[in-house]
Amino acid sequence: MILDSRALNSLDPPFAVVDLDAFDANLADLMRRANGVPLRLASKSLRVRELADQALCGGFRGMLCFTLPEALWLARSGASDLVVGYPTVDRAALRQLSEEGLQERITVMVDCAEQLDLIEPPARVCLDVDAGFRALGGRLRIGAKRSPVRTPQQAAALAREIVARGFVLDGLMAYEGQIAGVGDRPPGKPLLALAVRGMQALSARELATRRAAIVEAVREVAPLRFVNGGGTGSIERTAAEPAVTEVAAGSGLFGPTLFDAYRAFSPRPAALFALPVVRVPSAGVATVLGGGYPASGPAGRDRLPRPVAPPGLKLDRSEGAGEVQTPLHGAGALRVGDRVWFRHAKAGELSERFPEVHLIRRGEIVGTVPTYRGEGKTFL
Ligand SMILES: Cc1ncc(COP(=O)(O)O)c(C=O)c1O
């Protein structure tokens, strides 16, 4: 990516950019990996409406939203085929769903009867199933701690409850975060890499059998419009399962640093942010304004933003990425007023830090569009 063009130099940092050439290349690669199986866009991984529209124009089908208020907001401006990826207990939003007649366009997620108590039939619901991996007789559990529904019997029982209460059982989702969101090439950790690959191979085999049995059991209760699984890190494996009709993905479009750690694919870094050098505390150290944008998840160095240009810069071990100031080592050539480019560890969380992103093609700014935050929307 061209980071020092005249157009970009005219902007005052802090600011965020998305390189559309990289974004388009990533989109094409996600499509290639899905091998004809539809991809549903995980909106949390962009949080920029214009870019979500571009992904939908580029072949994604439907969205996996992260909250019901988000889905309502999108539906009011005309979007449809919106699946809320996580259960909701937001009574006001659930009321709006039925009162505004948006039930045809939005599907809400459930994994127990208590959630159904808050929803007005005939809403569309999706049944969330635990896709985690268990070993050692269940004592070792790896994967997202989400749905209590794990077996075909449990899924069929909840499906019957859903139908009996007058809801439309629209789909089934089983997200294997231990494969989709865990890199199998962790840098500098060859033993961990072997353990991750072994776990993922066993988990994928177990899940393929169990997911097929669950889908069969639930289809005996109600027809399913979709069976969703996976994420950016598991596309080819999830898409290859005959029981799956679509794969959710989003992070692969921005290509944040956590997604450098996979063998099967290498997204191009498409989202970056620039911070200004505001002081030089000592030789070889430069301090930029801002930067404390750690990613969610287990706190660790891999969650911190990474300085990528100019090359050779490193965060300070004791200060990390600071709330207002971030000192950088290896900065001998940097002067007050220069700028440093960073990548975020995760995808859509970057959009919570900036009101807008500049869209870049070959170093030229071809548009400036609001993030969700810039539209006054902070859903989570
Ligand atoms: C339910 C669900 N599906 C899919 C994904 C994958 O999204 P991404 O491709 O952005 O990693 C996630 C991410 O956390 C998720 O929670």
What would you say this structure looks like, in words?
It is a single chain. By secondary structure, the chain is an alpha/beta fold. The protein folds into 2 domains: 2-12 and 267-375, Lyase, Ornithine Decarboxylase, Chain A, domain 1; 20-251, Alanine racemase (TIM Barrel). Helices cover 28% and strands 24% of the residues. It contains 11 helices and 19 strands. The strands form 3 sheets. Strands 1, 12, 13, 14, 15, 16, 17, 18 and 19 form a 9-stranded mixed β-sheet that branches. The chain has an 8-stranded parallel beta barrel with strand order 2-3-4-5-6-9-10-11, surrounded by 4 helices. Helix 7 (152-164) crosses helix 9 (190-219). Bound molecules: pyridoxal-5'-phosphate.
* Strand proportion: 15-25%
Please tell me how large the radius of gyration is: 22 Å
How far do the termini sit from each other? Answer: 31 Å
CATH topology of the largest domain: TIM Barrel
Q: Give the CATH architecture of the largest domain.
A: Alpha-Beta Barrel
Number of distinct helices: 11
In the residues, how many domains can be counted?
Answer: 2
Order of helices and strands: HEHEHEHEHEHEEEHEHHEHEHEEEEEEEE
Largest sheet: 9 strands, mixed
- What ligands does this structure carry? pyridoxal-5'-phosphate
- The counted number of beta strands is 19
Would you tell me the overall average pLDDT?
97
**CATH class type of the largest domain:** Alpha Beta
Which descriptor suits the 3D outline? globular
Structural class: alpha/beta
Measured as a percent range, the helix fraction is 25-40%
Low-confidence runs? none
CATH superfamily of the largest domain: Alanine racemase
